[in-house]
């Protein structure tokens, strides 16, 4: 009798297993919006070392969302649905970023994610968003390999609103030669992330002058005097220093205090007001950095002008680069939903891949086959801590 019961139980369990397999096969991949709202997640560095970027991006995201909702929402096949933002802090931690992505996709059931801001945090979330089939648009992850698998094929759910490091680095090299006439430069880069390493490599590959010295610093370093003193003795015309504002602000300050008054050229990691706060207004002269959003260049773009005016009215400050990139990221998701006539996460990814001539505040954007935006680039110059000139680079 016991044997018969066990056998029957085994049969029931086996049937259940096959039923489960059958159900798994027919389960729809990805997340779908339900009701009158569309859930969009934000995986962002709101605290930690990159909080300056994350907070700026959060403001751009919230401004775009409030505008869209005020106008009725996103048009999904003839029906307007409002955005419900779900914002989570990844604390500038790769482990936390991966966990946040899992929460947003599995628990919150978002159909798209904006963020993270940094390449490392963005890369950490890729396995979880890919498994959930939910696309992410990073406003500022710039490493060339960010959107690619190790075999060189594109990551199907990974997109960005900014250009790649190799483009930034090559642009800086061209600017050094053509505009600054710098024949001898030193490179001082952040080696604690793919961001600084990649930019330095791209710059050195493209620069036609002589790199007289190349050194690295690490995130969290405070004293740069020894390296700067060695640069001073080598008769350099300029310094290329790709990295984040937290270290670059100190490098600028200590360079000027050491009597090094040559131009210092960096990347979009310098495009944050905190750079000048750390360096000091008087020290922040002859400072240049590549950026996807320049206030003076943007004045020729009606879409950008409207954004800048609305941002100023809402936050009582000029719109930073990272707010502009995040603002565009939200509207790119909106366009993808409307072009596909669906708030299904898989279809949103397909829509993002098809973006062409998108009218963004950071310029016209077309997504290439590797999910990188083709868009304009500019260089801003700081004088006494304020943007004094902008250069449109072609």
Count of DSSP strands: 16
Please state the average pLDDT score. Answer: 91
Number of helices: 13
- The secondary-structure class comes to alpha/beta
| Corresponding CATH architecture of the largest domain | 3-Layer(aba) Sandwich
Looking at CATH, which topology of the largest domain would you report?
Rossmann fold
Helical proportion, percent range: 40-55%
Strand order of the largest sheet: 8-7-9-10-11-15-16
Pfam families: Peripla_BP_6
Protein name: Leucine-, isoleucine-, valine-, threonine-, and alanine-binding protein
Family: Belongs to the leucine-binding protein family.
Domain Leucine-binding protein: 37-384
Structure explained in plain terms:
This is Leucine-, isoleucine-, valine-, threonine-, and alanine-binding protein. Pfam families: Peripla_BP_6 (PF13458). Keywords: Amino-acid transport, Signal, Transport. The chain is of the alpha/beta class and 394 residues long. The chain folds into two domains: 37-163 and 300-376, Response regulator (Rossmann fold), CATH 3.40.50.2300; 165-291, 3-Layer(aba) Sandwich (Rossmann fold), CATH 3.40.50. Helices cover 44% and strands 21% of the residues. The chain contains 13 helices and 16 strands. Helix 2 (51-70) packs across helix 12, helix 5 (165-178) crosses helix 6 and helix 12 (321-340) crosses helix 13. It is globular. The N and C termini lie far apart (84 Å).
């Amino acid at each position: 009798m016991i044997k018969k019961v066990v056998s029957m139980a085994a049969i029931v369990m086996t049937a259940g297993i096959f039923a489960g397999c059958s159900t798994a096969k027919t389960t729809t991949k990805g997340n779908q919006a339900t009701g009158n709202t569309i859930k969009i997640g934000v995986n962002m560095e709101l605290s930690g070392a990159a909080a300056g970027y994350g907070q700026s991006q959060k403001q751009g995201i919230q401004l775009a969302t409030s505008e869209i909702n005020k106008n009725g929402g996103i048009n999904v096949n003839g029906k307007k649905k409002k955005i419900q933002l779900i914002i989570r802090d990844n604390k500038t931690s790769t482990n936390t970023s991966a966990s946040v992505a899992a929460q947003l996709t599995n628990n919150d059931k978002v159909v798209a994610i904006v963020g993270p801001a940094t390449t490392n945090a963005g890369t950490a979330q890729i396995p979880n968003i890919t498994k959930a089939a939910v696309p992410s648009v990073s406003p500022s992850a710039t490493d060339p390999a960010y959107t690619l698998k190790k075999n060189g094929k594109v990551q199907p759910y990974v997109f960005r609103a900014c250009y790649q490091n190799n483009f930034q680095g090559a642009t800086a090299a061209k600017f050094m030669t053509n505009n600054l006439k710098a024949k001898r430069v030193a490179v001082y880069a952040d080696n604690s992330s793919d961001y600084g390493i990649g930019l330095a490599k791209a710059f050195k590959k493209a620069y036609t002058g002589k790199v007289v010295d190349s050194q690295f610093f690490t995130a969290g370093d405070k004293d740069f005097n020894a390296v700067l003193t060695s640069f001073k003795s080598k008769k350099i015309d300029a310094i290329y220093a790709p990295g984040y504002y937290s270290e670059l602000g100190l490098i600028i300050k200590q360079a000027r205090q050491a009597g090094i008054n040559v131009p210092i050229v960096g990347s979009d990691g310098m495009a944050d007001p905190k750079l000048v706060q750390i360096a000091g207004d008087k020290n922040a002269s002859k400072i240049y950095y590549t950026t996807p959003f320049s206030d003076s260049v943007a004045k020729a773009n009606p879409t950008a002008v409207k954004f800048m005016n609305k941002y100023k009215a809402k936050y009582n400050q000029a719109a930073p680069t990272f707010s502009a990139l995040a603002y565009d990221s939200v509207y790119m998701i909106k366009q993808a939903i409307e072009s596909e006539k669906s708030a299904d996460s898989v279809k949103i990814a397909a829509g993002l891949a098809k973006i062409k001539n998108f009218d963004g505040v950071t310029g016209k954007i077309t997504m290439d086959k590797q999910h990188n935006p083709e868009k304009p680039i500019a260089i801003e110059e700081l004088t006494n801590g304020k943007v004094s000139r902008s250069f449109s680079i072609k």
